[in-house]
Amino acid sequence: AGLSYGRLIKASTIDNFHSSEESYDLLVPYFNENDISWILGFNYRMSAHWGITARYTRGITPLLSPEKHNLNTKRLLSYFLSFRVEYYFK
């Protein structure tokens, strides 16, 4: 368990359902560049060389704060799952 800090370097969206006037790409300039998240993870070492890891990451700070920029849209909060298979060299 812990905290993480991330920095948004570049962002874009793909929106196949809205016209160009309503595209989510119009919101990209309003995305927050800094992200603070909490992480909960599990690591299991199956042998001397192999292990697996699973992590859940959830944003504390929103990716988009519509009230900050007076936008008529919903707040965006990041979250994701990560899975890894690891090999340890010895």
Task: Give an overview in words.
This protein has 1 helix and 4 strands, in the order βββαβ. It has 90 residues and is mainly β. The chain has a 4-stranded antiparallel sheet with strand order 1-2-3-4, with no helix packed on it. Strand 2 (34-45) and strand 3 (50-59) form a beta hairpin. The longest helix has 4 residues, at 66-69. The protein is elongated.
Highlighted features:
mainly beta; single chain; 4 strands; 4-stranded antiparallel beta sheet; 41% strand; 90 residues
| Beta strands, count | 4
Q: In this structure, how is the largest beta sheet organized?
A: 4 strands, antiparallel
Strand order in space, largest sheet? 1-2-3-4
Separation, N- and C-terminal Cα atoms = 27 Å
Set down the secondary structure blueprint:
Blueprint: E1 2-7, E2 34-45, E3 50-59, H1 66-69, E4 79-87
Antiparallel strand pairs: 1-2, 2-3, 3-4
What is the gist of this entry?
With 90 residues, the protein is mainly beta.
